[in-house]
Amino acid sequence: MDTLQAILIAIIEGLTEFLPISSTAHMGFLASILGMGESEFLKMFQVSIQFGAILAIVVLYWKKFFDFSNFNFYIKLIFAVIPALVLGFLFDDMIEAVLGNQIAISSVLILGGVVLLFVDNWFKNPRVLDEKDISIKTAVIIGFWQCLAMMPGTSRSAASIIGGMTQGLSRKASAEFSFFLAVPTMLAVTVYSIFVKTWGKGTATEMKGFEMILQDQNHINLFIIGNIVAFVVALLAVKTFITVLTKYGFKFWGWYRIIIGIALLIYFYTK
User: Fold this and answer.
1) Domain ranges (residues) in the chain
2) Whole-number Å distance between alpha carbons of 94 and 157
């Protein structure tokens, strides 16, 4: 991976991580277009640069994350993230296996797009307009919905936002809670991928993520550049998404997923 490739992947990560369109599908497609193969460093890089995207949410909503008087906010996030931590750990190997199946990911992208076409009609009368009105029970339910995104192509953002809307949250409140929940979820995944997970199991080159990063100066540079680019792009993407979602709903994103999914199916079938 060279610097330009790392920047392009980080741009895609920052643009798509918090949109309901699956960052995994988009990064996989870009890596294929760029002829990057499926190296262990690339897989780890795609996960590790989530840290930059996480930091963007903390910066944008710093008043929320650093309001230590609102202890209930942290409690809700802790309970909501538990399902993903447990199930993600149990099914890590299965999830990684699917990451290489672009046909399956593209199909899920299309299916999720069809769902988004109808979401606005299903949930027209929201009762919860602010995070403060979300109960711990509701937060946990949203946490389980988030687990649907363990199937690559689903989109963590789409799963958790729809999960919130099933519990009476408005589009804006559901999207914002999805962003809040992304911080502990993605931080845990990033830490696990860098410091705990062994990449390339059973091969002569198996190592931890941080070992791959520290393997040479180029990897260190790519890691730093990737996180900086993902951070800057995510800052712009999140605010834009909230505006578009609040004003127009999910149909745009639904059609986008369907069109991109079909294009990816054609690409990977004829590749």
Assistant:
1) 3-99+118-250
2) 21
